């Protein structure tokens, strides 16, 4: 039994706790910026893409979004791009879904001279598979996801969410040198990013 004199305070705390639930579940959580994953051209970095033909159900289940593409480029590369208002769903080990089964053992970050502003996460497996990905949120590329989450924790709770974008290129060791596969994977990743950013956008409030 709660003493009557504490009821106003308890009611106020419960009301505050309900704000994120109401905002994100019933009032539309997204701040749209005018960009579209599906507007990315099939031809990127001189290569013609084709649909991977995987069922979209796994993307909705793992990343909480249906706003994505997955395309194959040549025999070795698969491009996956997805947007979601749930940043953690995208930045927390995205390879567990996109590249499930590759068994990466080495991870590090590189920057290409032509795009020093883009931190590229690199994943390597003992078999020679090498995948790369990048994270974009409100025009900023994220290098330290945990720091990003801590810095934006309060804002993500109480305001409509912007969309985080994950660009992921899965590289398989199916011919050619590992160096060539690595270089083409990073080039395809940056071509997708360039094309996405070139779309006319809507300034966020």
Mind explaining what this structure looks like?
With 205 residues, the protein is α+β, with helices and mostly antiparallel strands. The protein has one domain. The protein contains seven helices and eleven strands. The strands form two sheets. Strands 2, 3, 4, 5, 6, 7, 8, 9 and 11 form a nine-stranded antiparallel beta sheet that branches. About 10% of the residues have low confidence.
Structural class by secondary-structure content = alpha+beta
Number of helices: 7
Question: How much beta, percentage-wise?
Answer: 25-35%
Q: What are the secondary-structure elements, in order, as H or E?
A: HEEEHEEHHEEEEHHEEH
Arithmetic mean pLDDT: 80
Q: Rg, please?
A: 20 Å
The figure for the number of domains is 1
**Total strands:** 11
For the sheet with most strands, the description reads: 9 strands, antiparallel
Low-confidence stretches: 9-28
The percentage helix is 25-40%
Please tell me what the overall shape is: globular
Query: What separation lies between the terminal Cα atoms?
Result: 45 Å
């Amino acid at each position: 039994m709660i003493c009557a004199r504490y009821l106003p305070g308890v009611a106020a705390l419960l009301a505050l706790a309900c704000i994120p639930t109401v905002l994100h579940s019933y009032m539309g959580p997204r701040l749209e910026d005018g960009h579209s994953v599906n507007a990315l051209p099939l031809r990127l970095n001189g290569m013609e893409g084709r649909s991977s033909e995987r069922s979209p159900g796994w993307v909705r289940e793992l990343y909480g979004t249906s706003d994505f593409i997955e395309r194959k480029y040549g025999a070795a590369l698969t491009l996956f791009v997805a947007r979601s208002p749930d940043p953690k769903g995208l930045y927390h080990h995205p390879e567990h879904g996109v590249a499930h089964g590759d068994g990466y053992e080495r991870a590090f970050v590189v920057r290409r001279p032509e795009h020093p502003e883009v931190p590229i996460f690199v994943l390597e497996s003992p078999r020679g598979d090498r995948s790369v990905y990048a994270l974009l949120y409100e025009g900023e590329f994220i290098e330290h996801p945990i720091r990003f989450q801590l810095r934006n924790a309060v804002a993500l709770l109480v305001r409509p969410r912007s969309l985080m974008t994950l660009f992921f290129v899965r590289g398989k060791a199916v011919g050619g040198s590992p160096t060539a596969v690595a270089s083409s994977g990073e080039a395809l990743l940056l071509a997708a990013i360039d094309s996405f950013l070139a779309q006319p956008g809507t300034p966020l409030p």
